[in-house]
Amino acid sequence: MASDLNMLSKKLITSLLFIFLVLSPPSARAVITCNMIYKDLKPCLRYVLIGGSVPTKCCTGVKSLVANATTTADRQAACSCVKNLATSATDKQFDRAARIPAQCGANVPFEISRDADCSKVN
């Protein structure tokens, strides 16, 4: 009887482990998409294009982006999306955009640069 219970416990534990493995999300897949990032950063667009002061909603979006980039894959995806946006900006627009994290008190985990190597972002 005790060995039957022990065998049942082992089978149950093995089954639960298998279920957890199947249901757990892959760690290397980015959850953040460029559309999500563009939505977060949309309130910054007016500032980037014409200057002035950084809107509160822009800072909220930047901080949301940082908070949602929880994995290396997320941070690399965010870096790539921001880098793609930077390639179409004028130098003046790019300079304003690059200053936003500091003006918002946000610690963006990658360099905002047209030449950023997003594959090296951790």
Q: What is the percent of helical residues?
A: 55-70%
Strand count: 0
The SSE order reads HHHHHH
Biggest sheet, open or closed, and with what strands and sense? none
Question: With helices defined by DSSP (H or I, 4 residues minimum), what is the helix count?
Answer: 6
**Mean model confidence by pLDDT:** 82
Rg from Cα: 22 Å
Silhouette: globular
Strand composition percent? under 5%
- Poorly predicted regions: 7-27
Distance between the termini: 52 Å
Class of secondary structure makeup:
mainly alpha
Keywords:
122 residues; globular; mainly alpha
Structure description:
This protein has 122 residues and is mainly α. The protein has helices spanning 2-23, 34-41, 45-50, 56-68, 72-87, 91-104. The longest helix is centred in the N-terminal third of the chain and has 22 residues, at 2-23. The N and C termini lie far apart (52 Å).
Q: Can you lay out the helices and strands and say which pair or pack?
A:
Layout: H1 2-23, H2 34-41, H3 45-50, H4 56-68, H5 72-87, H6 91-104
